[in-house]
# Entry
Amino acid sequence: MLSEHKDRGRWNTKLGFVLAAAGSAVGLGNIWGFPTQVADNGGASFILIYIICCLAVGLPVMIAEFAIGRHTRRNPVGAFKKLGNGWFPPLIGIWGVICGVMILTFYMVIAGWTFSYIFEELFYFTGLTALSEWFGDLQNGVKNAIFTILFMTGTVAIINGGVSNGIERATKTMMPILILVLIIMIGYVMTLEGSSEGLKMYLLPDFSLVDTGLVFSALGQAFFSLSLGMGALLTYGSYLKRNQNIVESATYVTVADMSIAFLAGLLIIPAMFVAQSAGITIMGEDGRLFSSATLVFDVLPDMFKAMGGMFGLIFGMAFFILLSMAALTSTISLLEVPVSYIIDEHKIARKKASLIVGSIVVTVSLVISFNIDLIDVFATIFNNVGLPLGGLMLSIFLAYFWKTENAVAELRHGYSDVDNGKFPLIWGVFIKYICPVLIALVLITTLYNLIF
Ligand code: PFF
# Structure
């Protein structure tokens, strides 16, 4: 057996692992992506379909990633190599590492925007309008480059601390703050004029809008939001101790991720209607709510400005601090995938590995930050195609190469009564049939729509 590099770490506590994995899952995908998708897809019916996708496809795949990671104690490439022969197994891992690096390149730029907006708000409310405009300009390549580098530096610093002292400690501190800030902001927005209209749109379903396209968007969103398909959670699983109940932990992570997405919607959709009451335009000429960057970087800041005074300042800054923290707990998991690959497979120390990958990623990010149209192209390829493709290969590999019996044997550690309640049977049906078929359908539809 290959020796383990000393820089391969272990989680200190069970809760620490759950929070770190939840931190990976909870990110821009929840606080920005989910409300945007709800707004795009007509409200509450999307939420229901999304929950079903998370539980029926996301959760079984997450259990699979944790099981493979813990069983092999390796990065994605090493893990699949250890479990199977031939070209196919390592390819799944290599694809994961590539997706990790590529997603990180544009995720960093967007994370940099959220960070620079903390200053945009601060300077606006302190009367320094020119400075505020500079920090708020998404097209300013120089400013984007500075903030992308700053965000990457923070991410590398945490990764350099190692698994328990770096990642676990940082996420354990940030996740409770994030939840608290979110809840306080929701409470306040609910007291403002217009919020009840937003609440209605968010919570009352309109099933006439449900079609296969909506189901596939929900599944794609679930995959991205749960950090599945590129081995990030496999890598986190590889630092697990044998006595942790993987099925239980995966359930906590999935529920935490869904709940925070739901809470983010509860903040952002009503906030849009509060903005409308303050005279801010929230819909395009087609009658649809603004989504995407317009929503986060135009509509909401305008709302904070309309609030004015101390509340505007506090809420404006708190919102972008919230987004930055959510992004940071995700960027560390994205970076950990290539870093763990280099540590395990090339026996290079953690600090050197993170510096190498960090520099490569930042170089590509800088190109994108000067030409932000590329973000859309990268996001489409790696989020919408890359992750489902990775997830499809992973579930096929587990079900038909490694075999579910072996995975269940791994799950028995920390969950001794895994066989009671028919868990192996049910999970087996999901991972062998339901997940691959649904993921393949999403992938085919996405590719078809992209090509034609
Ligand atoms: N789950 C993160 C989000 O919702 O923003 C994004 C992400 C992180 C995707 C890590 C994939 C990943 F491996």
